[in-house]
Design brief:
0% of the residues lie in helices and 52% in strands. It is mainly beta.
Amino acid sequence: MHVYELDRVNGVYTRTAVARGRLELSVPFPVTVDLSRLNR
């Protein structure tokens, strides 16, 4: 899964991470997702 965040200075989204298996984010709030449990 590709993760993007808004670059407020330039007004565009930029890729900040590529997650495989487990996604852990702290912005805009803490969240953890086990990607292996998602159905395709």
